[in-house]
Amino acid sequence: MTSFYLSYEQREYWETWLSRVSRSFALVTPCFEEPLDAYMSIAYLLCRVADNIEDCYQPYEWQQARFAEFKQLLQNPELAPSILANWLHEDWLGLDANQTRLMQPDDGLMLWQIYTLIPNPSRSIICHWISVMVEGMEKILDTQQEPLLLERHNIRLLATENDCNQYCYYVAGTVGHMGTDLAIAHYQFNPEVATQLLEGCESCGRALQKTNIIKDFVEDLGRGFCYLPDAWIAEADGLPLLLQGAPRSWMKMVLDRVMSELNASVTYVTSIPYESPGYRLASLLCLLPAYQTILLAAQQHEIVYA
């Protein structure tokens, strides 16, 4: 196995920044065996850099330029000092203080230095899947490409259920593939187990993303976005977009569709061999809170969209 060593300072860096950007994922990563814990954490932080570019209140052309630089960094992380120095002079409009700091040299450079240390094939896996994610984000932001975004009541929303599935693939299904490929490389799963996991990883990521769409519905509306498809919103006469509630039957329809994907994700977790307890536990810690979220949404359906 290729050696991978991080200094105390480097390990403290990714643990600190993971806690800042996602307390929930920071609880999951200690479950992984070394060095998979570091690979997963660095990959997650790199995904957040991509998210920050997508979330910036800047024109599409500006975002395209930053995405191009980001993809350069994935291929050639030694460019980080110069690119992050240029990013220092960009206006990261819409990001909070921590998000902005991750994009700049003082706090962002070490992320790329650690990424450089990750050996292949793991670094190639991270590079490939985050590149696919970024290409998807560019399509989402481009109004001329699928998945299509419409506008209702000054809110941008996905047009159809297929557009919703495409969106979830780009921002979460890719993460499912990346995490699974990293685990296969780390644990050296036999071909049968690897095939089972690869068959279920995309739906697993998609299910978790759709759960987040329900959980963050009001917050996303505040940002001018709705990630539930317009075709679904129309069935509730557009009331959720106005935060005027939704019929119980409509809420049940939405939750049932997410639950069907969550239930399929259980097969993914049970396919993980017992000989890989860290990965199995980490996967459970991602899945169980999603069930809790759906339960709370069902119990409080009258206020979820109000």
Task: Supply the key terms.
306 residues; mainly alpha; Farnesyl Diphosphate Synthase; 15 helices; 3 strands; globular
Could you characterize what this model shows?
- The protein is mainly α.
- It has 2 domains: 1-145, Farnesyl Diphosphate Synthase (Orthogonal Bundle), CATH 1.10.600.10; 148-306, Farnesyl Diphosphate Synthase (Orthogonal Bundle).
- Helix content is 71%, strand content 3%.
- It has 15 helices and 3 strands.
- The chain has helices at residues 8-21, 23-28, 36-55, 60-75, 80-87, 97-102, 105-117, 122-141, 161-187, 191-215, 217-222, 230-235, 248-270, 277-299, 301-304; strands at residues 149-152, 155-158, 225-226.
- The chain has a 3-stranded mixed beta sheet with strand order 1-2-3.
- Helix 4 (60-75) runs antiparallel to helix 8 (122-141).
- It is globular, with a radius of gyration of 20 Å.
- The chain starts with 7 loop residues before the first helix and ends with a helix.
- The model has no long low-confidence stretch (mean pLDDT 94).
Count of domain modules: 2
Query: What percentage of the residues does DSSP assign to strands (E)?
Result: under 5%
**Structural class, from helix and strand content?**
mainly alpha
Give the overall silhouette. globular
* Percent of residues in helices: over 70%
Task: Assign the CATH architecture of the largest domain.
Answer: Orthogonal Bundle
Q: Provide the CATH superfamily of the largest domain.
A: Farnesyl Diphosphate Synthase
Q: Which fold name corresponds to the CATH topology of the largest domain?
A: Farnesyl Diphosphate Synthase
Task: Count the DSSP helices.
Answer: 15
